[in-house]
Amino acid sequence: WGLAYYINKDWNVINETNSAATSAYANEIIQSHNHLETTNLICHIRYATIGDVSMSNVHPFKKNLFGSQFVFAHNGDVPMFDVQSTENYGKDYRDIHKGSSTSDAKPSYSFQPIGETDSEHVFCTILNHLQSTFDTLPSLPELYFAIHEICTYIAEQHEGTILNFLLGIGEAIFAFSWPGSRKGSTTWNGLHYTLRNDDCPSSPISDRDYSDESESGSDDDSVESFSSSLSSGSEVAVITTKPLTNDSSWTEFKKGDLLLFVNGKVISSENLCELDGYTHQ
Predict the structure, then answer these.
(1) Which has the least CB within 10 A, 8, 48, 128, 180?
(2) Burial (CB count <10 Å: 0-12, 13-18, 19+), residue 270
């Protein structure tokens, strides 16, 4: 398991090879709700379908491009980058930039995976595509279209691709979903999100017998509500594989959706104009 949190213009990453259920640090975070104060947080618990259980394979991954930090966590399977299928992997990787709309872009392979996961291969491919397309860190709208382009191309290459990820860049998080079920499984892997503010009421956690708001004298398993952690007037976006609460406030991503989350707001291709004048933090 691992997490990345953004504070003072820096993404801090914590990764462990032991399970989150047995992690002393994860338990410390849960028991001390104010242990981490951040504007952005990405947490991932790995199922380990491709690659050994090792530090090099633990999400989130962190790499630098254009003088900025990028962090990435993925849920799914990407046959295109299954290292056990060397023939298909090599061919597809060399041809990956054919989908680029920038005709004079020179393919870059500066980013290479350290571990064995298909997830890190996807991350490196996104960064290589951005490096091939731009000379400096582009605007968020430009990033949006470039990321959507390369991820749609990857997802369409093989039947059975499941590509759901969070990509953090400064105070922005891009979330892409190409949902599906693994072969032989009925478990649906997709993405959902909800928007909350400090006025939102608590809701029952979907798989536990308590609400998302801790109360004085409540059981140790209680968790703090989204709203009680926010300062007045603040908003938060929560993105998960499955809805965390039983209320109807969750929206499921559609296949091929790329959504951008900034300051607790969700931005799609239809309202990118809201980012006019926004600069990376």
Answers:
(1) 8
(2) exposed
Question: What is the rounded CA–CA span in Å between residue 276 and residue 57?
Answer: 37
Q: Let me know how many helices (H) and strands (E) the chain has, helices first.
A: 4, 12
pTM above 0.85, yes or no: no
HSE on the CB side for 179, CA within 13 Å?
17
Amino acid symbol at 5: Y
Torsion of CA 74, 93, 260, 4, to 10 degrees: 40
62-100: per-residue pLDDT in tens? 999 999 999 999 999 898 887 655 444 444 444 555 544
Q: Residue 64: in which H helix or E strand, if any?
A: strand 61-65
How many Å apart are CA 182 and CA 186, to the nearest integer? 8
